[in-house]
Structures are given as C-alpha cells and as structure tokens.
Design brief:
The protein is an all-alpha fold and about 150 residues long. The chain folds into two domains: about 1-35 and about 115-148; about 40-60 and about 65-110, no CATH class. It is about 80% helix and about 0% strand. Helix 1 (about 1-30) runs antiparallel to helix 5 (about 115-145). The protein is flat and about 55 Å long.
C-alpha cells in the first residue's frame, strides 16, 4: 500500500534527520578520538570490527536507505520475491566483503588517521545523512499527496 510506504519513508526521513543532527552535534562538542584498546590477536580485531560494523544502527539505516533508493532509481524494478531474495543474498555478500575489507584496512591503518581527519569525515557523513533525510521526506510527501 502506498500509504504504508509513505509513512515508512516519512519515519525514515525523520530518523535520518535526527541521526544527522546528533552526529553533527557530537562532532562539534567532543574531540573525536580513536580507541586505544589493545586486542590480543590480529584475527580478534578483525572479528570485533566486523561485528561492530554489522550491528551498527547506522549500517542498518544505510541498508534501508539503499533498498529504497535502488527501488526509486529502477535498480529493483519490482518487489518480486525471487528477485528480492537474489538481491538480498548478493547484497549480503557485498556487505560481508565490504565490512571485512574495512575491518582489515582499519586494523592496518588505524594509527595513520588524525583526530582532525576523523572529525572532517564525521561532518561530511552528517551532511550526507541530512541529504538522504531531505530526499525521504520529500518523497514521502509526494506519496502522501498522491494517496490523499
């Protein structure tokens, strides 16, 4: 139903707006620092990084955004169950590869990131979240207008 889709888009837009504001506020108020935890083994750090990334709420929000955006631009032509299952399986494989690659890269390069660089990355990402929030809110309002 289009009303449900519009409501979910509106809720996602609000959620992304709140996350964007909180991220931007957090960067401005605090000094962003890298964790100085010493992990026992190389493999344990990869597993920990992967698990933290996979269960990160922002990663989950990203996948919600990704599926909706893919549907809007036509990458997902329709919600056929077999097509969606294939899409989810390959997206999951891509996610697994991506997170393992990020964990591996960050494990080797963690000392090369300065606090200022991480602060700039977080500011850029908060603006990206705000952009997706605006997109979802506009899209939900368009759908509400069509349904009503």
């Amino acid at each position: 139903d289009e009303r449900v889709k519009a409501a979910l888009l509106f809720g996602s837009g609000i959620l992304l707006a709140v996350l964007s504001i909180l991220t931007f506020k957090d960067v401005i108020k605090k000094n962003v620092s890298l964790s100085q935890l010493k992990l026992k083994t190389h493999h344990m750090s990869i597993i920990t990084g992967f698990t933290m990334s996979f269960t990160n709420p922002l990663m989950i929000v990203f996948w919600i955004v990704y599926v909706q955006f893919s549907y809007d631009i036509g990458v997902i032509p329709h919600y056929n169950p077999i097509f969606l299952l294939t899409f989810v399986l390959f997206s999951g494989l891509g996610l697994l590869t991506y997170l393992l690659l990020i964990a591996k890269i960050l494990h080797h390069a963690r000392k090369s990131f300065s606090k200022e660089f991480i602060k700039k990355i977080n500011i850029v990402l908060s603006f990206i979240l705000a952009g997706f929030s605006v997109y979802f809110l506009i899209r939900s309002l368009q759908l509400f207008k069509l349904v009503m």
